[in-house]
Amino acid sequence: MVMVYSVGHISGAHFNPAVTITFAIFRHFPFKQVPLYIVAQLIGSTLASGTLCLLFNVKHDSYFGTVPVGSNLQSLVLEIIISFLLMFVISGVATDNRSIGELAGIAVGMTITLNVFVAGPVSGASMNPARSIGPAITVHIYKGLWVYIVGPIVGTILGGFAYNLIRFTDKPLRELTNSGSFLKSMSRSNQSAV
């Protein structure tokens, strides 16, 4: 969350190759810059992992990367779901001019926190290929690494697609929420009972 506020105005706070790819697909980011961003993200992750290994003398049994605890399939499905949720929120707060942009870091940070609570015990809740690739390269543990490349990319693309499906409407929000509102029907039934 702090990093989003710190560098968001400079680079768009792109720390995640899956999000960068999804932004490019949905035209929020130029495709020609995607390779450079991904290389920078991977270098940053690898350097950060290398720094941790040097500072704390990390061994194979104290690996800080992500590996599936359950099956690869379980972790893949969880990574797709939580990456979907992350991208859906990012799309809502970072690309829709109707949102309150100042709250983007809080919304994204809380989504990541909830995703970690839910999926962390099974998949490690990476949601970010660079976050998994850097430690894998540094410590040479590649178990299930493909899950953390494929899952977040598929999940973020689906999340961006889903948000774009609901984003484009000519109806004002008031009309959308009033059309079939459960609360509105409840208030009508309460008024008729009185």
TrEMBL record:
<dbReference type="InterPro" id="IPR022357">
    <property type="entry name" value="MIP_CS"/>
</dbReference>
<dbReference type="GO" id="GO:0016020">
    <property type="term" value="C:membrane"/>
</dbReference>
<feature type="transmembrane region" description="Helical">
    <location>
        <begin position="6"/>
        <end position="26"/>
    </location>
</feature>
<keyword id="KW-0472">Membrane</keyword>
<comment type="similarity">
    <text>Belongs to the MIP/aquaporin (TC 1.A.8) family.</text>
</comment>
<feature type="transmembrane region" description="Helical">
    <location>
        <begin position="145"/>
        <end position="166"/>
    </location>
</feature>
<feature type="transmembrane region" description="Helical">
    <location>
        <begin position="106"/>
        <end position="125"/>
    </location>
</feature>
<feature type="transmembrane region" description="Helical">
    <location>
        <begin position="73"/>
        <end position="94"/>
    </location>
</feature>
<dbReference type="GO" id="GO:0015267">
    <property type="term" value="F:channel activity"/>
</dbReference>
<protein>
    <recommendedName>
        <fullName>Aquaporin NIP-type</fullName>
    </recommendedName>
</protein>
<keyword id="KW-1133">Transmembrane helix</keyword>
<dbReference type="Pfam" id="PF00230">
    <property type="entry name" value="MIP"/>
</dbReference>
<keyword id="KW-0813">Transport</keyword>
<dbReference type="InterPro" id="IPR034294">
    <property type="entry name" value="Aquaporin_transptr"/>
</dbReference>
<dbReference type="InterPro" id="IPR023271">
    <property type="entry name" value="Aquaporin-like"/>
</dbReference>
<feature type="transmembrane region" description="Helical">
    <location>
        <begin position="38"/>
        <end position="58"/>
    </location>
</feature>
<keyword id="KW-0812">Transmembrane</keyword>
<dbReference type="InterPro" id="IPR000425">
    <property type="entry name" value="MIP"/>
</dbReference>
